[in-house]
Amino acid sequence: MSPLLLAISFFFHLVATVIWIGGLVIITLLVWPEMRRTLESSPALLALLTRLRRRFVPWSNFSLVVLVVTGLAQMTANPNYDGFLQIDNDWSRAMLLKHLTIAGMVVCGVVLQYGVTPALERASLLLERGKGDPAEWERLRRREIRLTQINLLLGIAVLGFTAWATAI
Ligand code: HEM
Question: Which of 29-38, 47-56, 92-101, 126-135 has the highest mean pLDDT?
């Protein structure tokens, strides 16, 4: 692969990292806590959480696609790469741990997007119409926060394994 193409691949790989992992950091450490403090028990909290979720999810899904495509290109271009599932040096061990951790992030994402989020948005809608069960909403919301925090920790682990691979 030409150095120019590799540089372009790394550029998009890094931008996708900033969007996904950076987005998880900002949402869990800044936006959610401040939203809760300022909009506690206001109907605006439900609407804002739903809008934020609907804006961030497509970006994180798109980032994952970009990371997989550019990552595969970077992997095959790396001199340490000896072929599919050839785990015969520290670099490929670091890459394997990175990919297993990313698989964990994907599982968290699928549980969130197809399990928790639809139920949470239904509960939010019922609450906004004065019909819902606040305890049920709280339970689902705690699950969303927990899964997102796990996803953030896994994302940081991915960066750790990448730093190890890049140092080799
Ligand atoms: C959450 C997903 C991912 C994140 C956050 C991530 C992050 C990163 C970062 C920050 C770098 C360093 C780039 C640099 O040194 O300039 C990198 C390098 C790399 N990534 Fe990823 N990446 C992800 C997914 C993937 C995937 C799915 C693959 C492979 C299919 C992959 C393969 C690589 C390779 C081969 C390198 C170069 C490592 C080296 O220089 O030795 N990455 N990644």
Answer: 92-101
Query: Is the pLDDT assigned to residue 41 strictly greater than 80?
Result: no
Q: Give the DSSP letter of residue 108.
A: H
19 lines ligand 1 (CB under 6 A): no
Please, is 28 exposed, middle or buried when counting C-beta atoms within 10 Å of its C-beta (0-12, 13-18, 19+)? middle
Which domain, by its residues, includes 68?
A: 3-167
> How far is the centre of ligand 1, averaged over its atoms, from the C-alpha of 5 (Å)?
15
Alpha carbon of 114 to ligand 1 centroid (Å): 27
Inter-CA distances, 8 with 13, 15, 16, 19, 74, Å: 9, 11, 12, 17, 10
pLDDT beyond 90 at 79:
yes
Q: What predicted TM-score, i.e. pTM, was given to this entire model?
A: 0.90
Centroid of ligand 1 to alpha carbon of 149 (angstroms) = 21
Distance CA 8, CA 77 (A): 13
Total of domains in the chain? 1
Q: At 85, which helix (H) or strand (E)?
A: none
